Amino acid sequence: MRIFFRVDANKNIGFGHLFRSLNIANTIKKMYKIKEIIFLTKNNKICKNILNKNNFSFILKEKNQEEIFLEKIISKNNFDILFIDNFYPYERKIIEKLKKYLKIIMFHNLCEGSFYSDICILPSAHTEEEIINDERWKNTRFLHGEKYIVINENINILKKTPKNRKKNFFNLTITTGGSDPKGVLITLLEFLNDLKIDNFQITALVGISFYEKKKLENLKKKLANFIKIIPYSEKEFLKSDMVICTFGVSTYELMFLEIPIISIGHSEINTKASEILEKKFNSIIDLGLIDNLKKEILQKTIFNLLKNRNDLEILSKNQKNFIDGKGNLRVAKIILDKNNNFMNF
């Protein structure tokens, strides 16, 4: 079996989609001994380095349109499956054209083409009922829910590692993704710089392709001593009593680790998803869109949680077993299943 993975990673869209697709691809390669896996991706230095480090071949997208690129590559190569984890508005026409060559699996992309793929998977617990009940799903095999959420391999390893929290000390960690093009981290640090809390530390994690490096360097000179800025490392979560994160794949990974979360949206879509997740499961605290967030609200939320530690325990309790970390196994089985006998995966 030969498989194409269509996924991008860069400063503008981050690296979460690449890492979860890598987890799925590595699962297929290790468990099922399938070696013919090729990534189709835009030309990005960090992305190429990550793929090379994981020993995956790749074909770089040319500057032509997405549809032209895919049709050109797929028509010239005898592959069996195209797995798309890419936010692009694929239309019905191109998906039906590509289906003549191979099976198409859409992952976490809600567009017209999704309804005409062979399989569409929405790996989330925040999908709206209106979307789930859309009549157009009759044209495809539609799967959704938290059991298809794919966790970063490093996070899976952390789950088995004992937490390393200090007694009588509170460590608040901030993570805003690999690139953070809106500069959410900058805004949060400015809002929290004058916090007055004893035995308290903020650890800000800077992504591998952080967008606002110059602004951050200038801000560092003004930051209080209780704020520490370091390169992103998942191991820091083991020391965290609570994490502020921009909503996305990281939110579910932190829930998997059972760490209390303050969730902030960096786009209207993410903000809506964060709101739904909070209301449905009471497993995170949603503070809405970063553009609308007030300094007083953020500080008050932190003060209240420190004052009422039971609320933190409730969040962690509601996260327990919510995600089992086996999404990569389920998705790998779906990709490789020739008879579509996967409804119970």
CATH 2nd-level architecture of the largest domain: 3-Layer(aba) Sandwich
What would the CATH topology of the largest domain be?
Rossmann fold
For this structure, what is the CATH homologous superfamily of the largest domain?
Glycogen Phosphorylase B
Determine and state the CATH class of the largest domain: Alpha Beta
User: Helix and strand succession?
Assistant: EHEHEHEHEEHEHEHEHEEHEHEHHH
Instruction: Note the main sheet.
Output: 7 strands, parallel
* Separate helix tally: 13
Instruction: Tell me the count of domains.
Output: 2
> Outline, from the CA principal axes?
globular
Low-confidence stretches: none
Mean pLDDT, to the nearest integer, reads 94
Question: Which bin fits the share of residues in helices?
Answer: 25-40%
Strand ordering within the main sheet: 3-2-1-4-5-6-7
Given the helix and strand composition, which structural class is it? alpha/beta
- Approximately how much beta-strand content do the residues carry? 15-25%
Distance between the termini: 20 Å
Question: How many strand units?
Answer: 13
Using the CA coordinates, give the radius of gyration. 21 Å
